[in-house]
Specification:
The protein has a ten-stranded mixed beta sheet with strand order 6-5-4-7-8-9-10-11-12-13, with helices on one face. It has a three-stranded mixed beta sheet with strand order 1-3-2. It starts with 6 loop residues before the first helix and ends with a strand. It is rod-shaped and about 130 Å long. By secondary structure, it is an alpha/beta fold. The chain contains eight helices and 13 strands. This is Cell division protein FtsQ. It holds the Pfam family POTRA_1. Belongs to the FtsQ/DivIB family. FtsQ subfamily. It is found in: Cell inner membrane; Membrane.
């Protein structure tokens, strides 16, 4: 029998109530979210719209890359596939432009002589146009049709820049044919027919077929500066050989075969005898073992005097 007169039972009841109260408080604490949890939940709610926006932009950029990679070479006759691709490209450009992806700047590198209006027309876009609304491959091909352009590249750089890099053809000579003057490069390609006078210090080649054969002759003349200094033009004859027109009006007739050797002979004669400074009508080097000099006479005779000088061996 308990000696406390019921106090023991009261103590047990009190402890039981305390345990229940503590357990209930613990459950309430467990149910209440921590401050860090609340903060993270708020951040997730704030970031959710931004995340969808980033995903949307990434998606359209990815589509743009696929269009660029899968784009076929342009077909000048046009076909259904190219028309569909152009339609998709326009749709992509319009949607991305609504997101702010427009051309903000166009950077041109390497342009010296290419006319800017022609270049802009070939590029086909301008500031404010959709960044993804055109084909960089087609733009590059249009630019490379310009006579001054040897090769080109067109790049898109996010968020809104177009970069055009040019390698221009270098004028090598002036070609006169049928009364017209144009610039040509080392490959004989016509570079321009405008503002030719700006490059008047370039060598002059004349006649049909001159551009294709000019590089070999002009390079040979560079190795013999005493001859080159007297030459004002190189005339292509029957698309087979060259005549050199000198400053004093003399014509030097070079052979069809081995013209470089004839130029070396001419240089030696100039050093020894100042041949190119003499008042001659022509110097004929077409025969390998002799040179024919035709003097310039004030009165034109029916048969002008001809002096033959055999080559000494």
């Amino acid at each position: 029998m308990p000696m406390d007169g019921g106090a023991g039972n009261m103590s047990r009841v009190t402890r039981t109530r305390e345990r229940r109260a503590s357990s209930s408080k613990d459950r309430r604490m467990q149910d209440r979210p921590a401050r860090m949890t609340i903060l993270l939940r708020r951040q997730r709610r704030l970031l959710r719209p931004l995340g969808w926006g980033v995903l949307g932009i990434s998606a359209v950029v990815g589509i743009g890359m696929l269009l660029h990679i899968a784009a076929p070479q342009p077909n000048i006759n046009g076909n259904g596939a190219s028309a569909t691709l152009a339609s998709l490209r326009k749709m992509l450009g319009d949607h991305t432009a609504a997101l702010g992806m427009r051309i903000q700047d166009i950077v041109i590198e390497g342009r010296s002589n290419t006319p800017e209006p022609l270049l802009n027309a070939a590029l086909g876009v301008r500031k404010g146009d959709p960044l993804l609304g055109f084909s960089v491959a087609e733009a590059r091909q249009r630019i490379e049709t310009l006579s001054w352009v040897e090769n080109a590249s067109v790049e898109r750089r996010l968020p809104g820049t177009i970069v055009v890099k040019l390698t221009e053809r270098r004028p090598f000579a002036i070609w006169q044919n049928q009364g017209k003057f144009v610039l040509i490069d080392r490959d004989g390609q016509v570079v321009a027919d405008q503002d030719v006078a700006t490059f008047r210090t370039l060598p002059l080649v004349v006649g049909a077929g001159a551009p294709a054969a000019a590089t070999t002759l002009l390079d040979a003349l560079k190795t013999e500066p005493e001859v080159k200094a007297h030459v004002i033009a190189a005339v292509r004859v029957n698309e087979r050989r060259w005549n050199l027109r000198l400053q004093n009006g003399t014509d030097v007739l070079l052979p069809e075969d081995h013209p470089l050797e004839a130029i070396r002979r001419l240089a030696a004669l100039q050093k020894e005898h100042e041949l190119l400074d003499r008042p001659l009508q022509s110097v004929d080097l077409r025969l390998p073992d002799r040179m024919v000099l035709r003097p310039r006479s004030e009165a034109i005779t029916e048969k002008p005097a001809i002096r033959t000088v055999r080559r000494q061996t």
